Amino acid sequence: MDLGACQRIAVLRALQLGDMLCVVPALRAIRSAAPRARITLIGLSWAASFARRFARYIDDALLFPGFPGFPEQPVGLRAIPGFITAAQERRFDLVLQMHGSGTLSNPLAAALGATNTAGFYLPGQYCPDRQTFLPWDERENEILRYLRLAASLGAQAREAHLEFPLLGADRESLRQCAGTLPSRGAYACIHPGARSPSRRWLPQRFAEVADRLAAGGLRIVLTGTAQESAITGAVRDCMKAPALDLTGRTGLGALAALIADARLLVCNDTGVSHIAAAFATPSVVICCGADPVRWAPLDRQRHRVLGATVACRPCMHADCPLDGHPCAAGVSSDQAWNMAAALLEQGTGDRFSVGPDR
Fold first, then answer.
1. Does pTM top 0.85 for this prediction?
2. Which of 68, 136, 222, 308 is deepest in the core (most CB within 10 A)?
3. Residue 224 contacts residue 259 (beta carbons within 8 Å)
4. Which fold has domain 3-152?
């Protein structure tokens, strides 16, 4: 396929922040191979804001109303015919199915009426075109997976680094919601939330790590969405040191600006870990239910991933069905602290030898 000859390309990926950031390297490669194409992101309700932020690679967005079997949002059944008609009327030269293994998304991609489709398929499942669809490997890193797809279509897919462009208003928004922040590199961000409870580490352990960071001289900033206020509140209540709690006060751009200037991020395996990777902000990522091979940042020196060995990984449950949440309980605060201290020492020679909490 000649990507350079495509005038209209659609990217089907109706997913959340971390999932979207993982395909930015592939979008960068596709834009380079098809510089004159109009690239449309088919995504969730926030896809338009993502397209604006990544205007170098995406020209516009088409709202995905949901589809039976897709878990990301409630299905707007009445809107589906209009959505498919709108996609068909755009006469895409290529629809890139970048939404997963293809069991549900390949039939949807084929229904959008493009001249060509490309993506992934599971053996034994529907494959629209064996020339442009690749076998799905569940354990493949998500960034490298979609770079492989771009390369199979002729794009020069060699750069795997993530990006998160800061817009002009992002830092001003951060100043307005946070007031006076500690200086760059003088604080650590603690982000204890995640969309699914099964993906969350224990608040007490986040608090223990935060207290040890504070004892080492860093200010602590708690982050999260308004819906995660109970989680960040639990961490704050367990802490002995004071913390600046920005839960629910930062938009996405302000949160990214905050992480960009942090000395360290401690978080669950969720979207903010990929923001940290985009800015090369050191991070400790506690991976409770997800597959770290698939979702962890590629730079394992700057971004350290912790996960307990459990037979039930990867977890498909929103809430852990097992007693004691073993994948979360299996990661101790000492383990996370040791990784944090090693990251803080990197490149500085400073020793962070704060004693264990009691």
1. yes
2. 222
3. no
4. Rossmann fold (3.40.50)
